[in-house]
Amino acid sequence: MSDIKRQYDEQGFVGPFRAFTEQEMSEVEAVIRRDLSVDSVLQLRRNRHLNWPLAQDLAYSSKIMAKLHQLMGPQLDIWRSNIFIIPGGKNSGLPWHQD
Predict the structure, then answer these.
(1) pTM
(2) φ/ψ (deg, to 5) at 91
(3) How far is 46 from 10, CA to CA, in rounded Å?
(4) What is the pLDDT confidence band of residue 48, given thresholds at 50, 70 and 90?
(5) Average pLDDT score over the chain
(6) Measuring CA to CA, how many Å separate 35 from each of 28, 31, 47, 87?
(7) How far is it, in rounded angstroms, from Cα 2 to Cα 72?
(8) Helix, strand, coil % (nearest 5) of the chain?
(9) Alpha carbon 53 to chain centroid, angstroms
(10) Distance (Å, whole) CA 46 – CA 55
(11) Which H or E run contains 60?
(12) Could you tell me which residues come within 8 angstroms of residue 71 by beta carbon, excluding any fewer than 6 positions away?
């Protein structure tokens, strides 16, 4: 049993893990801002891993998938994705919730 699986079984959670560097996320942010400014279809925020290359690249990143494989095994696929676009400013953000 992997350390990640053991921790999850004992504590009910794992992480946090750093999957991307600040530089990588800055590049991701630039693509998101660019794509949102030119493609109003991106305002649709569900299941974007099916038709948006950036969402596919993030979701299927080897860094993320390696951790998921340790926890859940090798046979994984993405069923659904959601994108939360949170404007900056006071009192902005996604309040604590449980899906």
Answers:
(1) 0.68
(2) 60, 20
(3) 32
(4) confident
(5) 83
(6) 11, 6, 16, 16
(7) 10
(8) 50, 0, 45
(9) 13
(10) 11
(11) none
(12) 2, 4, 5, 8, 14
Burial class (CB in 10 A: 0-12, 13-18, 19+), 48: buried
pLDDT of 62 reads 93
Q: What is the pLDDT of residues 50-70, one digit of tens each?
A: 888 888 999 899 999 999 999
Q: What pLDDT, on the 0 to 100 scale, is given for residue 24?
A: 95
Q: Which tokens in the block code for residue 34?
A: 């660019």
CA 64 – CA 70 distance, rounded (Å): 10
Over the range 4-40, which residues count as b (16 or more CB within 10 Å of their CB) and which as e? beeebeeeeebeeeebeeeeeeeeeeeebeebeeeee
Strand partners, 82: 46
